[in-house]
Amino acid sequence: MGYLVFQPQNAHRVRVEERDLLFHVPTTSLFEIDETDGAVLGFLAEKGRIAEADVAARFAGHDPADIARRLKGLRDLEIVTDGRAPSPERPPIRIENFPLSTIVLNVNTGCNLSCTYCYKEDLDTPSAGRKMALDTAIRSIDLLLKESPDREKYNIVFFGGEPISNLRLIRDVVEHAEPRFAALGREVNFTLTTNATLLTPEIVDWLDAHRFGLTVSMDGPKALHDLNRKTIGGKGSYEAVATKARMLLSRYRSRPVGARVTLTAGVTAIHEIWDHLKNDIGFAEVGFSPVTSGTMTAFNLNGDELLEVFEGMKALGRLYRDEAIAGRNIGFSNMHQLMQDLYEGRSKALPCGAGVGMLAVDHEGTLNLCHRFTGSEMETYGNVETGLKRKELSAFIEARADRTDKGCATCRIRNLCSGGCYHESYAHFSDPLKPTYHYCDLMRDWIDFGIGVYGDLITRAPQFFHTAIAPRRAHGK
Ligand code: SF4
Ligand code: SF4
Questions:
Q1: Which end of the chain has fewer surrounding CB within 10 Å, N or C?
Q2: Cα(141) to centroid of ligand 2, in Å?
């Protein structure tokens, strides 16, 4: 018998009411463990390094074969080793190809609203808006297909400013793309995030006919929405947005429509916002984006507010769980996403697809990591005329993915968070290579909470994953 060395970076225990769950960090898998497993794990964690014979002695009252079987299970998961370091989770990332599935077109830098917190660094008033030309959009699609010719599905995302303010281009792109992808035997999907104000029944029907995935930016009931989402003249935009959103929802049939809420300083009322958008307005899903790193620091949630936001998200998460167990889906996107990641056992090397599966093209055709970087001072990666700066882009992605000497190397949520959003790091630390260290504890707490909910649902409402999570995946969310 040899020695057993506990590897704390690979195991994380979460207690959910009466149940003990073991989260296997390298694979993001979850196991329910019994009292003996718990006692063995607790003993190994306490000792750190111990002779196998001493473990057998400690559990002398148990069947030795049973204890040996449990230890083998822990060895197989590399939660204990014989003293050697666990095998690397994955070889260092090397990016040679860019399997693009998504291209984001910034069709107009202009916006007809003037939301006080807007992060877009290339945002202009409507009259000063710089619009993308059709030729640039077509070259973007050429690039998508050149870099990644063999996919079955592609996504074209229209972003702004307010994308509907350049509807002419959107219509032309759809007219160009649909027959082009059909001739290749490929599927193309379109998505768009809008402030809703420019929608008309005719536009909605056209978007519906082309099965656009739509998200409306809306921040909640009037008092909260109007705090920041204002017209150019400085008036609240709630009445206009709510009217248009109701019109949209009353006639949109092809896909569920979601709302995206930006949480800024002073806006932490998660349940109230969700209730209004889901139950009063009628969105299928509501997702929250807490702002921690905007360029205008006055709008960032402060530490206490961020704490309140996460507490509110957990309270809504409990409602999500209870309703899911009763067979209902309350449409809380953040929770859905976490359930999907855990259900699919995703072990992510990268936080998102930016720069690898997705690129954003600004109005001039310059290539950016994602839509949040257009117009910023962040390095760009070529343009649709001259092509992708492959070397520079892979160097960035590889450097950010390298966890050596970073806190992420041993973090228990490293394969779900993967260092966090590049833009958050860029905005908070002026360094996109740095992990989003400014709210790790909150993220870990949120993931622990999600693991608990997942553990509950998988045993008490497994059908929820088929009825609510799988269709969401099919919609590309
Ligand atoms: S950024 Fe923080 S929470 Fe995320 S993986 Fe790194 S250490 Fe963990
Ligand atoms: S870098 Fe951040 S904002 Fe951009 S796609 Fe990734 S997670 Fe989203």
A1: N
A2: 21
Which one has a higher pLDDT value, 378 or 119? Answer: 378
What SS3 state is found at 385? coil
Q: Is the pLDDT assigned to residue 295 strictly greater than 70?
A: no
Cβ–Cβ under 8 Å, residues 105 and 113: no
- Which of residues 73 and 301 earns the better pLDDT score? 73
The fraction of the chain above a pLDDT of 90, given in percent, is 76
Phi, psi of 174 (to 5 degrees): -65, -45
Please report the atom of ligand 1 found closest to the CA of residue 444: 3
Question: Do both 50 and 197 map to the same domain?
Answer: no
Q: Model pTM?
A: 0.90
Task: Report residue 116's pLDDT band, with 50, 70 and 90 as the boundaries.
Answer: confident
State how many domains the chain has: 2
Closest Cα to atom 8 of ligand 2: 421
Residue whose Cα lies nearest atom 7 of ligand 1: it is 408
Ligand nearest to the CA of 357: 2
Q: Which of 359, 393, 427 is the last residue of a domain?
A: 359
Range of the domain at 205: 102-359
Of 330, 359, 388, which residue is a domain's last? 359
Q: Does residue 212 carry a pLDDT above 90?
A: yes
